[in-house]
């Protein structure tokens, strides 16, 4: 049975998701603006954020917010219980009619993620986790994959954009992972990449330079499914970055050795 807290989060996520699903059907009519190079925001991102803020602030008026579209330069939750929210993770997919995006909500208390929800409105897949209580996909308990061999593993990543000019470091990592694993995937939705590691669909995932709202919910979901999460060089993961490596416990160290010490080719 879900706790009252998770119910509050699921209600907010599904309400925002309903709006995203509706907008996705008429995406060509949406207003879109640019926040920076290759960084778009649509009416739908903003509307979903507003819906979530409203739902969560009624349910828990004393909690703070760190939300992508209204973060105003803040990158880290403070000491008070804080909702860390990505109202639409995968805006580029959404705007191109690719049916792969998600709503991501996390509760962070004293620096620790204590609850997380990632909801894919198109596939109707709801990933939830609460600290110490396991991770679930639509009420089915999740467990990371048991694969032990790199050459049988499927690993996800994100390709740097947003004005990054030096792709050399990423290309060196990619080359190393390509050479040793069974394949690399890049779907452009960090919260779902993490949820898929938790579900055993991917054996690992790495990316750098994202924000707390991309990672927070997914990190807890992976850990509660028995996976390991760190920075790419093996140090303790931090919500404000700079990098992430999530994997099943058998492959985490091997992947870290592969990508943690790469130098830029540029
Ligand atoms: C993006 C996604 C994607 C990652 C990008 C993010 P947004 O978030 O999480 O996986 O590779 O860097 O910006 O902007 O669509 O919420
Ligand atoms: Ca964005
Ligand atoms: Ca995001
Ligand atoms: Ca977003």
Protein topology:
Layout: H1 4-24, E1 32-36, E2 39-42, H2 43-59, E3 64-67, E4 82-89, H3 91-95, E5 102-109, E6 112-120, E7 125-130, E8 135-137, E9 140-141, E10 154-157, H4 168-180, E11 183-185, H5 190-198, E12 204-208, H6 212-224, E13 228-230, E14 243-247, H7 252-259
Parallel strand pairs: 3-4, 10-11, 10-12
Antiparallel strand pairs: 1-2, 4-5, 5-6, 6-7, 7-8, 8-9, 12-14, 13-14
Bound molecules: D-MYO-inositol-1-phosphate and calcium ion (3 copies).
One calcium ion binds at residues 45, 68, 86, 88-89, 91.
How would you describe the overall organization of this protein?
- The protein is of the alpha+beta class.
- The chain has 2 domains: 4-141, Fructose-1,6-Bisphosphatase, Chain A, domain 1 (2-Layer Sandwich); 150-259, D-Maltodextrin-Binding Protein, domain 2.
- It is built from 7 helices and 14 strands.
- The chain has helices at residues 4-24, 43-59, 91-95, 168-180, 190-198, 212-224, 252-259, and strands at 32-36, 39-42, 64-67, 82-89, 102-109, 112-120, 125-130, 135-137, 140-141, 154-157, 183-185, 204-208, 228-230, 243-247.
- Strand 5 (102-109) and strand 6 form a beta hairpin.
- Helix 1 (4-24) runs antiparallel to helix 2 and helix 5 packs parallel to helix 6 (212-224).
- The longest helix is centred in the first third of the chain and has 21 residues, at 4-24.
- The chain is globular and about 50 Å long.
